[in-house]
Specification:
heterodimer, A: alpha/beta, three-stranded antiparallel β-sheet, 24 helices, 10 strands, B: alpha/beta, six-stranded mixed β-sheet, 10 helices, globular, disordered C terminus
Chain lengths: 510, 255
């Protein structure tokens, strides 16, 4: 509890900014969902044949997991890509169903005699809609908006995976830390926001119900509009970040956050350019797409990952050859691979230290006999990648009785430590290896290709800002595996602030 | 001879896929007359009203309102010249009594003061003093009061024609008798052309200058109440026989 308040206190400016971004995401997308959903609902309510297919489509959209939706939208021009834009699109899609549904229900629930009276009095369809149908359907519509907004607060946390910001950034960032209470730093404000939104809209809904007086209805609408405007304005103010010339991205695990911050500080310090940090993007594919689309200008990739996951080339174990191949492939698509930073973050096959010591496990080969009684747990990427689990199993003849449990990479360290699984594939430089007393088994058959970390940037940006190239090149060979592990340890286990860790590191090596 | 206010000429109307509701129907209502249409449920009475304000158009034949075919009337303009009172009133629950009455004047773009004074006048006319009732809500009124508001709303822009679809059907007998008296009082001031639909022969006799009896989409009789009461048509006799015997004061046993 104490740790939580300390965290909030020391991160209060950032907390306000993330909270503001979160509110903006939800408010913007909910307003847009209302602007789209209410006319759609009105349209569907009048054409019953259209209503059911429309609702079916909206329901299907709602069942698509949000992370899948973000991934799906990445390559789509205009609405897709990385950042708040794609997140807003996804949140709008989620918000549509409840709003369309309650609009239809509200309009259909109006007594036929009331509608007939309106028509017989000589109201045009438009007058009937504005003076009779919409006011009577309003409480029902507001109920839909309430559902959409509350769902939006929750879904917006996932939007952090595509760099949209918001409180989800804390949740993602904290997943990689050992101390689970820190996850609450993002989850509690998000939950409070959801409760506040729910309560406020429920109040509005009650004020608007048909039995209330029109004067109090008008007052309620005025109050609601004023509150919404105040929240929006203050959120815009809080959410504003210094716009940077260079956009640095990163994937969503600790080492990548550290490396992203490292690139950012190097550019700020040596090139003197403002930097916009879009850290914590979902994964390799998202970062690559963002670089192609220009949503980010530079991030750190690993040569083996680029070779297999980005360019779908056969696995190779020669570091120099891999680097040259990847650099050539990047160059073809207008991107420049800078010289390696100096460490190889290979996959580390990890077991509990206690198991390793009691059974004398040193290499992956040693673990093969044990595998018949073990459960494995792997990150999403590792299960799919050609240089991941399928090849590993073949190369060593591993034979787990069950198929591996698929889980978030950062969670798998703790799953291993707590005994839920017995073997995982982590990062060789992960700070948690030391923090949780895990042991890396040697890749004695040299299955894994080299994963030399190196910055990859849009060629155009390096041409326009030669100082950025110089700044990035100055980092080459400066980060050893020990440095990297120490920084990860400082972030994950000691909970030190990443910008501070990076500042200390840069001050020491340069 | 003056143009009749409402005239049906050879009107046929069928709901899609169903038997004909009206078949070669003819009817004339003179300006300022009150016509009551009586018949069983489903005899086509409500359809007749909806043909007058163009909620429906005839399959064949012509409906003339104030000398013009309803097909030639602009529907919105026609409906604003024809007041319509429904059995379940259809007051707008999200508007006060005054706002309900003010709907059509506002649609017509009347100035604020004119609307206010007209609402005041109408509420007085239907026996609901404005200071007490203007700010009330439909759900705070009794059935009879709601129906009075319905009448006031229908009369708001002083339409020459008033259509009433079973206006007093859902009320208790005492309230109904009270509203019948009110109706006479108001009609003696306003001299509207009125068509009232009812299934109650007694109500028809109480309110109308002329009574029409409809069966299977045809007009069986249409005459002065006295003449209808004397009719020998079997259906008319049936409807008359259905009237409850009215106990006379003289028949009450003396204490």
């Amino acid at each position: 509890m104490r740790a939580l308040f300390t965290f909030w206190l020391s991160h209060r400016a950032e907390l306000a900014s993330l909270f503001g971004q979160h509110v903006l995401l939800v408010a913007g997308s909910t307003l847009a969902a209302v602007a789209l959903g209410v006319p759609l609902g009105i349209f569907a309510a009048r054409r019953p044949r259209l209503a059911s297919p429309l609702m079916a489509v909206a329901s299907i959209v709602q069942t698509v997991p949000s992370l899948a939706m973000f991934g799906f939208l990445l390559p789509v021009p205009f609405i897709g890509g990385v950042g708040a834009r794609a997140a807003v699109v996804v949140l709008i899609l989620y918000g549509l169903l409840p709003i369309v549904r309650t609009t239809i229900a509200g309009l259909r629930g109006i007594d036929a005699s009331i509608r007939e009276a309106g028509v017989a009095m000589g109201m045009t369809p438009r007058e009937l809609l504005r003076q009779v149908e919409l006011p009577l359907a309003l409480p029902s519509i507001v109920a839909g908006v309430r559902v959409a907004a509350v769902v939006g607060v929750g879904s917006a946390t996932i939007a952090a995976a595509t760099g949209a910001g918001g409180l989800g950034e804390y949740i993602y960032r904290c997943l990689s830390m050992v101390d689970t209470t820190v996850i609450l730093a993002g989850a509690i404000p998000a939950a409070l926001l959801a409760l506040a939104v729910d309560g406020a809209l429920l109040w509005l809904e009650k004020q608007l119900s048909a039995r209330r007086r029109s004067r109090s209805r008008r007052a309620a609408v005025t109050v609601a509009a004023a509150v919404a405007a105040a929240v929006l304005v203050s959120s815009v103010a809080a959410a504003r970040r210094a716009g940077g010339a260079i956009v640095v991205g990163s994937k969503n695990f600790t080492e990548q956050l550290v490396l992203g911050e490292l690139l950012a500080q190097a550019i700020e310090r040596d090139a003197g350019l403002p930097v916009d940090r879009r850290l914590n993007l979902g994964g390799t594919l998202i970062c690559d797409q963002a670089l192609v689309s220009g949503d980010i200008d530079v991030y750190v990739e690993y040569t083996g990952t680029a070779l297999t996951a980005v360019f779908h080339q056969p696995v190779s174990s020669d570091p120099g050859a891999v680097f040259d191949t990847v650099r050539a492939l990047y160059a073809k698509s207008g991107r420049t691979l800078l010289p390696p930073l100096g460490f190889n973050n290979t996959f580390a096959i990890l077991v509990r230290g206690a198991d390793a010591r009691s059974r004398g496990l040193r290499t992956i080969d040693d673990a093969v006999p044990e595998s018949a009684r073990w459960r494995a747990g792997f990150g999403y990427e590792f299960v799919e990648r050609p240089d991941g689990y399928p090849g590993l199993r073949k190369a060593y003849g591993l034979r787990f009785p069950d198929s591996p449990r698929v889980m978030d990479l950062t969670l798998s360290y703790r799953a291993l430590a707590s005994g839920q699984v017995d073997l995982i594939a982590g990062d060789a430089t992960a700070g948690l290896i030391k923090g949780l007393d895990l042991v890396q088994l040697e890749d004695n058959r040299h299955y894994f290709p080299p994963y030399d970390a190196a910055a990859v940037a849009r060629a155009g940006v390096l041409l326009r800002y030669p100082r950025v190239r110089t700044a990035l090149e100055r980092l080459s060979g400066r980060v050893s595996a020990a440095d990297m592990r120490a920084m990860n340890y400082a972030a994950d286990v000691e909970h030190r602030d990443v910008p501070v860790i990076v500042r200390d590191f840069l001050a020491r090596v340069q | 001879m003056a143009t009749p206010a409402i005239e049906f000429r050879g009107v046929s109307f069928a709901r899609p896929g169903l038997a004909r509701v009206l078949d070669d129907f003819a009817l004339t209502v003179d300006a300022g007359d009150v016509l009551a249409l009586v018949g069983r449920s489903g005899a086509g009475k409500s359809t007749l009203l909806k043909l007058v304000n163009r909620l429906l158009l005839p399959d064949s034949g012509v409906v003339m309102v104030q000398g013009r075919d309803t097909r030639e009337w602009e529907p919105i303009a026609l409906r604003r010249r024809v007041g319509y009172v429904l059995q379940d009133v259809g007051l707008f629950p999200h508007m006060s009594v005054a706002d309900n009455v003010a709907v059509v004047p506002r649609l017509e773009g009347w100035a604020v003061d004119r609307v206010a004074s007209r609402v005041h006048e109408l509420l007085e006319l239907v026996g609901l003093p404005a200071p007490t009732f203007a700010a009330r809500w439909p759900d705070e009124l009794s059935g009879g009061q709601r129906q009075r508001v319905g009448v006031a709303r229908a009369l708001a822009v002083d339409p020459p024609v008033l259509l009433m679809d079973e206006p007093f059907g859902a009320l208790d007998p005492l309230t109904r008798a009270e509203l019948h008296a009110e109706f006479h009082r108001i009609q003696s001031h306003l001299r509207k052309t009125v068509i009232i639909v009812t299934h109650d022969m007694g109500e028809a006799f109480a309110l109308a200058d002329r009574v029409g009896v409809i069966e299977n989409g045809r007009l069986i009789v249409c005459d002065r109440p006295g003449a209808v009461a004397a009719s020998t048509e079997p259906l008319v006799r049936q409807l008359l026989d259905a009237l409850p015997a009215i106990p006379r004061p003289s028949a009450t046993p003396s204490p």
